[in-house]
Amino acid sequence: MNSGSTGEGSHDFARARRIVKTDEFSSVFRLRPSQKSAHFVLYTRLNQLPHARLGVVVAKRFAPRAVTRNTIKRVTRELFRVTGLPAIDCVVRLAKPVNSKDGPATTAKLKAALRVELARLFAAQAKLSGKPALPPSPPPPSGSP
């Protein structure tokens, strides 16, 4: 993988597309949340880059298991990548518990619910930003004619 890539046209999530520094997170958090959903809060700020960047904050108190936290981050990055937001910095923060320690750490039902909730969040932000959200690409057909 090319370390200088921006992730254009591929399925990776390059470092250039991530918010990684504490001060970058802080500068986005200082602003009011731009979108809220049942479990997530989205903070945004315009950036001077040709692309959007993403930061994800998933606290252990809201998702006690590492598997659950990693699933949330993975689904968030996937949807962010395919949404095609304009040049903004986005920080998605888990604000309410998604499951308990008692049940399974991650299920297909949980993943589907996360996808729906996060897709709505990003679509609402894209609409606010004046750029229509791109729907997630359908999976490739199983058989070629």
TrEMBL record:
- A Pfam family annotated for this chain is Ribonuclease_P
Taxonomic superkingdom = Bacteria
Name the reaction it catalyses: Endonucleolytic cleavage of RNA, removing 5'-extranucleotides from tRNA precursor
**GO biological process annotations for this chain's record?**
tRNA 5'-leader removal
Function field: RNaseP catalyzes the removal of the 5'-leader sequence from pre-tRNA to produce the mature 5'-terminus. It can also cleave other RNA substrates such as 4.5S RNA. The protein component plays an auxiliary but essential role in vivo by binding to the 5'-leader sequence and broadening the substrate specificity of the ribozyme.
- Keyword list, A-Z: Endonuclease, Hydrolase, Nuclease, RNA-binding, tRNA processing
For this protein, the Enzyme Commission number is 3.1.26.5
Which protein is depicted?
A: Ribonuclease P protein component
State the InterPro entries in the record: Ribosomal_Su5_D2-typ_SF (IPR020568), Ribsml_uS5_D2-typ_fold_subgr (IPR014721), RNase_P (IPR000100), RNase_P_CS (IPR020539)
- One Gene Ontology cellular component annotation? ribonuclease P complex
Q: Which family does it belong to?
A: Belongs to the RnpA family.
Report the gene name. rnpA
This entry's Gene Ontology molecular function terms read: 3'-tRNA processing endoribonuclease activity; ribonuclease P activity; tRNA binding
The region annotated as signal peptide is: none
* Assembly with partners or alone: Consists of a catalytic RNA component (M1 or rnpB) and a protein subunit.
